[in-house]
Amino acid sequence: MRSRLRGASLFARLMALVTLVLMLALGLLAVTMYISIRDDKADARLNEITIQAQEIAYLASQRRLIDRTMEEYLYQKVQDVSAEFNAGVLVLDVLGARYAAGLTDGLIPGMTLEEINQRLSSLVQTGEPIRAREPVGLLGTAAFTVVTPWKASDGRVMGAVFIHTSAQVIQASYRDVLARMALALALTAALAGGLMLLVTRGITLPVRRMASAAERIARGEFDADIPEQGGDEISRLARSFNAMARDLKNLEEMRRAFVSDVSHELRSPLTSMQGFLQGMLDGTIPEEERSPYLGRVLDETRRLSRLVSSLLELSRIESGKVPLEPTRFDINELIGKVLARMAPRIEARGLDVDALFRQDPCYVRADVDRVDQALTNLIDNAVKYVQEGGSLTISTDASGPVAEVSVSDNGPGIPESEQPYIFDRFHTVDKARTSGRGTGLGLAITRRVLRLHGQDIRVESTPGKGSAFIFTLPTD
User: Mind spelling out the 3-state secondary structure of the chain?
Assistant: First the structure.
């Protein structure tokens, strides 16, 4: 109980940390918006000053072309701009002679005579206006400098208009926006804190239930069940938890069945071998009769070796430790190699083998060693269970992105009730008749090999008429 309470407390602290992170994110967003609005306002003010400088430059270029009224209008415009923007304004000709000034009768505050002459010289050479803005301060203060040329009717630069502001406050126009953002941030913080508190309380109880159920599962009690109420995330988590518990239960049952099957498969040959050897040691089996019994012991030893090898191979495949190395090869050619390798057994049983290749060659892209393994298992099964003198047919056909391979025989067939389980581990159709013929793992390994390639295998069988195992392989 203490551990669960500590877990709930840890979760509550986690929720508090999430709330804090959310608040920091909102605060960062507010600061970002503040800086963006402040910079936009500074740019707008610089544009306004530039427009005023252009109007003054136009008046300066026209002063000699009309009359003294224009000159007076120029002077008045300079004074109005100086007052409105709290800026120093200076109208000079190319020689540095002053035509009009605002804010002072001398130089512009904040600019030295050397700075004015340098910018005037640069302007005369390039004819391009100068716009400068110092970095905006935290409180929204900034200094602006605009130098605009005024020209004669023929385009020659006759002089320049200087406008310079010193630490101009541009914050007042958006203080209301900042106040609203701060209020929204505070309300969001309060709401987020309340919601996090409610969510934490709502999550704690189901989490405790899940912790208790997890402890029962750890003890091997897989019947743990959590109420699945509502449609929220916790309910979905509860459903997933219950599904996991059911899967673990099924897995445990499969594990037990697997151990039971393996034990049975190992116990039978070991018991037989033990009986034969014990009979030889205690003299029950005379020495002159031991040869056939030793042959049986050797057969059982080989069967055990095949069983262990098959188990290890199946384990490697199921664990994903068998990397595929796909190559492009002719499946018909591979079938021919497998048949040639198994020719002695096929001839010993007097089987008639037909190879029906609708396309020759028939290229596929797969791991050739794994496909060889699957073909060997299927043909080996057919050779084992078909009657002597029976027939075996192997066909291939390519259609679209896959090639289809069929291994069929005219053996006893598989009952319909057994077909869904034919690819399970250790499953045999007739245990009394098939005992000793195989490990019951060949078809299981074959299906898993094909599924590694993204393909599958199916069985088509009619009792008394034979069976056909059909699988596909990718062609590209």
Answer: CHHHHHHHHHHHHHHHHHHHHHHHHHHHHHHHHHHHHHHHHHHHHHHHHHHHHHHHHHHHHHCCCCCHHHHHHHHHHHHHHHHHHCEEEEEEECCCCEEEEECCCCCCCCCCHHHHHHHHHHHHHHCCCEEEECCCCCCCEECEEEEEEEECCCCCEEEEEEEEECCEECCHHHHHHHHHHHHHHHHHHHHHHHHHHHHHHHHHHHHHHHHHHHHHHHCCCCCCCCCCCCCCHHHHHHHHHHHHHHHHHHHHHHHHHHHHHHHHHHHHHHHHHHHHHHHHHCCCCCHHHHHHHHHHHHHHHHHHHHHHHHHHHHHHHHCCCCCCCCEEEEHHHHHHHHHHHCHHHHHHCCCEEEEEECCCCCEEEECHHHHHHHHHHHHHHHHHHCCCCCEEEEEEEEECCEEEEEEEECCCCCCCCCHHHCCCCCCCCCHHHHCCCCCCCHHHHHHHHHHHCCCCEEEEEECCCEEEEEEEEECC
What's the CATH class of domain 2-175? alpha beta
Can you give the pTM of this predicted structure?
Answer: 0.44
Q: pLDDT category, 105, cuts 50, 70, 90? A: low
Q: Which of 13-27, 153-167, 412-426 has the lowest mean pLDDT?
A: 13-27
* pLDDT class of 106 with cuts at 50, 70, 90: low
The correct answer on CATH 1.10.357.10 for the domain covering 222-322 is no
Average pLDDT over residues 427-441: 53
Residue found by looking up tokens 């716009």 in the block: 131
The architecture (CATH level 2) of 324-474 comes to: 2-Layer Sandwich (3.30)
Residue spans per domain, the chain: 2-175, 222-322, 324-474
Q: Give the pLDDT confidence of 289-314 residue by residue, as tens digits.
A: 778 878 877 877 877 776 677 667 66
Q: pLDDT (tens digit, 9 = 90+) per residue, 333-363?
A: 999 998 988 888 888 888 989 988 888 889 9
